[in-house]
Every structure is written in structure tokens, then in C-alpha cells.
Amino acid sequence: MSLYAASRSWLLRFKPVRSNLQFRERFHSAVGGLIGLLATAVIMRLGLGRSEHVPLLIAPIGASTVLVFGVPASPLAQPWSVVGGNCIAALIGVSAARLVPDTTLAAALAVGFTIALTSLCRCLHPPAGAVALTAVIGGSAVTSVGYHFALVPVLSSSLVLVFAGLLFNGLAGRSYPHVAVPISPGAAAPRREPRVSITEADITTVLERLETPLDVDPADLLGLFRRIEQAAQRRPFDEPLDDEIRVSGCSSRYD
Fold it and tell me: Number of C-alpha atoms within 13 angstroms, CB side, residue 37?
């Protein structure tokens, strides 16, 4: 492969992945995010009042809103990920701010430990990194309240946001908390001849018909299915899987 071809192939990786979402789903995501965050802010204000000395909303809750309403089927957007991830991050961030004098080091440690602990607790949530960072560099409005920051606004606003997500996504016909679409016994092993192979177009068609958007790329699913097929074929012979499988058509995502 020439240097030009290799460079072009590498640069094309940065091209935005095509989205298969229908306009209805984009509309639901936008309206849901608006209503969800607005409801969170209103309920927080009604419950705490204007005289509360801690912020009623923090920026990471906006990122959580994008996940809950934008990709409700993502593992990163599930209720335990939102509530558990944000609260654990807040506790870690406050602890780091108190124990580590250097702000830069405290911020880095807070985010690193947040990734590790939320991963172990099965509540990995990208906005949690911002929660941990906010607890360290949020200024006197955050540092003055100490561990109370984990309760208000982090826990309270996360709970309200998840509840709003449950209501809105349910009314919109979305699966939240997400449950995988069940497969009937007949669909797992269709009795058809000749045997056909799954293509990226097949995956795209099915994804477009789902009522809940999935945070997954058809090309990645195609590669996964190819490995599953290989594993099923080699299982009777106890043969190991190849370390790398080249899937024809995966590069079509960049066409």
C-alpha cells in the first residue's frame, strides 16, 4: 500500500459515521432533552428554593440528558449508569479536592479513579468524568458544601432526569431502561435454502425499523456477526479464532 493510500485510509477514519436515525427519532431526542432538562431544573428549584447555596444544575447533567434522550438504548445511558456513575464521581471528586493540594493532580486523579470505579460498579457514564472534574475545579460554590455536593445537586438532579427519561421515552415508545429485542426461536435458525449471509445493508434496514435508536455502527455489528459465525463453525472442532478477521464491505461506512 502506498503512503498516499495509507494516509487517506487513516484520515477517512475521522469522517463522521452515517446515521440511520429517522427524523421522528431525532425529533424525539431533541424534544425529550428539552423537556427532561427543563423539568429537572423546575423540580430542583421547587424542591430547594432560590436561597439554596449550591447550584441547582451543573453542566454534566446536560451531557447526561443527551445520553438519556439521544441514545436511550446505550449501556452508558441506563438509569444505574446515570445515577450511580454521577454520584460515585461526585464522591471521588470531593475526596480528591480535599486530599490533594494540587488542583491539576487532584482533577486528573478524580477522573481516573472515576473511570476505574464506575467501570467496576458497572455504571460507566461519560458525564461522570465531568462531575468529578466539577467537584475539583467548581469553585467555592462546590467546594464549600463538601460531600453534600454528591446529594445536591448530583443525586437529586440525576434521579429527576432519569424519572423524566422513563416517562418521556415510555410515551414515545422507546425501550428505557433498554431491553434487547427478543428473538423468536424460528428467527434464530431459519429453514431456508440456500443459506444467505448477513450484509451491512441488512443490519441498516433492521436498525431503521427499531423504535429505539441503538448506539451502534452497522459496520461494527457486521464484524461482530462475522466473528460469531466463525466461532460457531469452529466450535465442533475446538479450533481457535483468528486474531483478526477482514470483513469485506466494512469500509463502505466511509464511501
Answer: 19
Rounded to whole angstroms, the Cα distance separating 193 from 188 reads 15
d(CA 245, CA 233): 14
Angle formed by the axes of helices 79-99 and 59-70, nearest 10°: 160
**Torsion sign, CA atoms 111, 16, 198, 212:** positive
9-13, 140-144, 173-177, 250-254: lowest mean pLDDT where? 250-254
Length of the chain measured in residues: 255
- Contact in structure between 32 and 165 (CB atoms under 8 Å): yes
Q: Which of 60, 217, 78 is nearest to 135 (CA)?
A: 60
Give the residue among 115, 50, 51, 49 at the shortest CA–CA distance from 81.
Answer: 115
Cβ–Cβ under 8 Å, residues 68 and 161? yes
Whether the model pTM is above 0.85: no
Q: What is the pLDDT of residues 76-113, one digit of tens each?
A: 999 999 999 999 999 999 999 999 999 999 999 999 99
